[in-house]
Design brief:
single chain; 182 residues; mainly beta; Hemopexin; 4-stranded antiparallel sheet; 2 helices
Length: 182
């Protein structure tokens, strides 16, 4: 009986092995030295062609799987938020700047600022922390204002104290103020 238990134990130990690596995703890490931009990336989105877009401390950073390219904003500020719409416009928000990148006829990305569409009294604002796209509208959230871009015009929403959240769920856009809601 003793030899049977030892034999079974040895067979059991020989059968033990680590998880099969066949379906484990391959992960590759990149440093700021690889992509030659700021060390912090704030937001990410991917277009229909698989190109990745990153909100980076030095601008919009793109990666096609092989090459990195940096597109600074006109005011050379951080890009905190990135969101791509169905037409392929790459909306971005930074410090005191909102707009979108769109490729020209040669495929080179060019920036189109939306700041001139904002009413003059609302053109100063802090970081745009997130962007939500819903039914033809693009919403940009800073802590002091939410901008709604639709039909080549911008509407501004002001909180009583501070905007803390902007998101989308079940086909609706939700915003939360610090002093309201839970």
């Amino acid at each position: 009986m003793k030899y049977l238990l030892i034999s079974l134990s040895v067979l059991f130990c020989l059968n033990l092995q680590a998880q099969n690596p066949i379906s484990i995703p391959q992960i590759e890490n990149y440093s700021s030295l690889d992509y030659k931009a700021g060390s912090q990336n704030w937001n990410i989105d991917q277009d229909k062609n698989g190109i990745m877009y990153f909100g980076n401390n030095e601008g919009l950073l793109t990666f096609d799987g092989r090459y990195w390219k940096l597109y600074p904003l006109p005011n050379k500020t951080v890009v905190r938020s990135v969101k791509i719409d169905a037409q392929g416009r790459i909306f971005s928000g930074g410090q005191n700047e909102i707009g979108y990148f769109f490729p020209n006829e040669r495929g080179v990305l060019h920036y189109h600022s939306l700041k001139d569409l904002i009413p003059r009294q609302d053109r100063q604002f802090p970081d745009i922390w997130n962007i939500v796209i819903d039914r033809g509208s693009v919403f940009f959230r800073s802590t002091t204002k939410i901008f709604q871009f639709k039909d080549k015009a911008i509407r501004v929403y002001h909180p009583d104290m501070e905007w803390t959240f902007l998101g989308k769920g079940k086909g609706r856009v939700f915003a939360q103020e610090r002093t309201k809601g839970s």
